[in-house]
Amino acid sequence: MPVIKSAIKRVRQEKKRKAYNIGVKTSVKAKFKAVRDEVATGKVKSNEDLVAAIKAIDQAVRKGVINKHSAGRKKSRLTLAYNSVAEKPFGTEPASKPKAKKTTTAKKATSKKAPVAKKAVAKKPTSKK
Fold it and tell me: Are the CB atoms for 46 and 35 separated by under 8 Å?
């Protein structure tokens, strides 16, 4: 058991982080298993579960809970299993186009600014001895 104040704090922090990491990993595993169960039964209706699983894996990587290479491997294996049973393989449906923002041409013309020239820095004279 640590005696030093900072070491005691580190132990508290490790407990919090471990609890958080276990929760994130558990949710990823649950979503992963949901897709695997669908594939095992052969009843794949939509790719919603697969998308949710991939999203959960990506979030775990962003939070630093799992390694990015491990996540890539998990997503790849899950997608391959899904595609072996699905009518339409994942990723073949056309991507939805992002909605264009409404802008007027007048705003575009006035919003452009001319590049600002940098000022030349004068060198300090050196003293001669």
Answer: no
| Amino acid found at 26 | T
What's the half-sphere exposure (Cβ side, CA atoms, 13 Å) at 100? 3
What are the residue boundaries of the structural domains of the chain, listed by start?
5-92
Q: Are the C-beta atoms of residues 66 and 21 closer than 8 Å to each other?
A: no
Model confidence pLDDT, tens digit, residues 16-62: 999 999 999 999 999 999 999 999 998 888 888 999 999 999 999 99
pLDDT band at residue 119, thresholds of 50, 70 and 90? confident
Q: If you compute the radius of gyration of the chain from its CA atoms, what whole number of angstroms results?
A: 27
Q: In this structure, are residues 85 and 44 in contact, taking their beta carbons and an 8 Å threshold?
A: yes
Q: What is the pTM of this model?
A: 0.66
Give the residue ranges of DSSP H helices in the chain. 5-41, 48-62, 68-85, 105-111
Q: Which CATH architecture has domain 5-92?
A: Up-down Bundle (1.20)
